[in-house]
Amino acid sequence: MSAFFAFLHHLAFLTMTTVLTIQLVVLGQPLTLQSARKLQIVDRVLGIAAVALLIVGFLRVFYFEKGAAYYFHNAAFHAKLTLFAIAALLSIYPTVQFLHWRKSLKQGQVPQLAEQQRRRMRLIVHAELTALVGMALCAALMAKGIGVIH
């Protein structure tokens, strides 16, 4: 059972990485009706994957693996949670923008996206991906017992 939850945890992480990469690529191109819809869809997938990552991660901490005491006494674990929180907070801005597009998309119109907004969203997605890379590093450190607080 532990291996299955590890698989789900990794799958959610890879899904987040993939979806953010898709957002980055799509935001680097001129916005079309199709690409705006794609951004809305992948943003929903990102939210679902993030919730899955968090839930499965906490199930692993409390019911599988090394136990909660090990993780809560590990600096890398705290750093990983902090990076997750940063990525989650950063994702609010693009999500709100995508939600504002609903009316335009329902009317079959390409949403307005100012160049400054597009650049800001790309910068945010870059930062989110950087946070995920940091989370992967923290996970590797935790797996090797690095960061234990005595």
Characterise this structure:
Keywords: Membrane, Transmembrane, Transmembrane helix. InterPro entries: DUF2214_membrane. This is DUF2214 family protein. This protein has helices at 2-27, 33-63, 68-72, 75-90, 92-100, 102-106, 115-143. The chain is mainly alpha-helical and 150 residues long. It has one domain (2-143): Up-down Bundle (Four Helix Bundle (Hemerythrin (Met), subunit A)), CATH 1.20.120. It is elongated.
Helix content: over 70%
Task: Count the DSSP helices.
Answer: 7
CATH class: Mainly Alpha
Query: In this structure, how is the largest beta sheet organized?
Result: none
- Multimeric status of the protein: single chain
Strand content: under 5%
Based on the structure given, which CATH architecture is correct? Up-down Bundle
First-last Cα distance: 30 Å
What Rg, in angstroms, do the CA atoms define? Answer: 18 Å
Number of strands: 0
Number of domains: 1
The helix/strand series, from N terminus to C terminus, equals HHHHHHH
Q: Enter the CATH topology name.
A: Four Helix Bundle (Hemerythrin (Met), subunit A)
- Contiguous runs where pLDDT drops below 50 for at least 5 residues: none
Structural class category = mainly alpha
Keywords: Membrane, Transmembrane, Transmembrane helix
Transmembrane segments: 12-33, 45-63, 83-102, 123-143
InterPro entries: DUF2214_membrane
Protein name: DUF2214 family protein
